[in-house]
# Entry
Amino acid sequence: MTQKLIQNGEVSLHLSVLDRILSRIVILNRSVLPLIFLSIICSFIPVSAIASTVNTDVEYSFGVFPYLPSQQMLKTYGPVTADLSQKLGTSVRLRTAASFAKFERNLSQEIYDIAVIQPFDYPKAIDKYKYFPVARMSDDLITTFMVREDNPYTSLQDLKGKRVAFAPISAANSQMGLAHLRSLGIDPETDINATYQRSHESCLQQIWLKKAAACVTAKPMVDLFEKKRKVKFKILAKTRTIPHILYVVHERVPKAQREKLLQSILRWNTNVRGQQIIKSMGFSGFSEAKDEQYDVMRELVYEKSSISKPKTRNNLSLGIFPYFPPKNLAQLFGGVPNVFSHVLDGVEIKLKTASSYEQFNQNVDANMYDIVLIQPFDYYRLVSLGFKPVARVSGSISASIFVNRESPVRTLDQLKGKTLSMPPREAAVTRLVLSDLKKKEMSPGKDLILEYKNTHVSCLRQIKFNISEACASASEVIDMLPGEFTDNIREVYRTESVPHLVLMVSSGFSVDMRRKLTEEVLNWKNTDEGRLLLEQMKLRPFVSFVEKDYTGLKNIQ
# Structure
């Protein structure tokens, strides 16, 4: 029997036969994967041989950065999870994330006991997040610019003016590709049309379907794609090499277990099961990861953080986290760039919105924003990227659950067995509701069904048209919307509150520029022009930022 559960936005596949071995395999995105992959997992390990050796009282969380599509991730790392469970004598749970940004957030919160990380995450994971390096892919990582076999281009200069596909902006191959272009005098922002895809496979699909001239990726990903699609690509250019992806382990895992983990991975090089695992990954083998091997990544991360558009001071960009569709955000915040421009001595400032939380996070990672207004839960992630606080919106945010007035639902408990729509998993409202559901021991998938929508407006449409029984939003959002969304709804539940939105600036801002912005926004409540701007944005006045107000958010995932 196979049982399906959804917990806190995660989809788990539970195997009753393998419960004591594999524990749960969790996918953080949209749907349960085809169960055919379970047989692939089972084929690597005889159940009867190891079921009695696994300690189910302890469970290790195993995270893998999402460089593969979800189905391929399960196919590749399901056997790895089973093998590690056997070798460590402990239940291991495989967890993937729907995006690079989500994985990096989980890593920063030290959720994973064991993780596979990309090399650009090494400095933070080891120097900041209390992880130890374990084992790395023996080969170095080479980023390749791939084109179709019939493509006539002979150099990267031929890509000027063309559409070039990348994996997510924070992927190591994307970062190396961007740096290589800059070293050749090709500006990724102006000389090419750079587009960032959800995965390496999506990147390769762009050139396969002739939607892009080139894809920036790694050769193992190309080999897997060519085998799957029965196509051939060719290499247009290569970057310098860097150390490859690696396994890390958190310091809370006992030292004896950490050593077992290293030896288990190294034995893959010499035993049949391990060689099958390595082959499925498209790599040649593993070796022990040495800290000095990754010093180059510390240098590259430093160089990356020093690339900041504000250096030119010709123009700056203002980003607003996408709690509303771009058109609505443009209406709410359209007057802010001119005000900021005046304060910063005439520097041009442009409002740049994003269509989704994922796109907003990718834009942040790509240094596309110089000034940002963010939700409170993103504060520490942006601090890790070099952003500094300017001020915060006064008051607090809480989440509310709304239903149609005619709905029989009056309490949170009465939502059992019903569908609750919510904004994206990253939204503050969603995190608050999920936290309360957990406290009340209401399991998504078991006690109620969760559906994630792109925005608050999309969520509220679900109850307007009776698609969902309830929608999680916020009273402040409701106050901004026209009557068609709000006249026929009522609140049935409200969470505790957290501190409000934060205005931040990138590391490229001087102390003087940051001071000028702080003085400006704090003074809005005292002038007619400022009060009019706040009214237009539908925001309360800004107040001085105090970091201790936000420390408690670390405990809400």
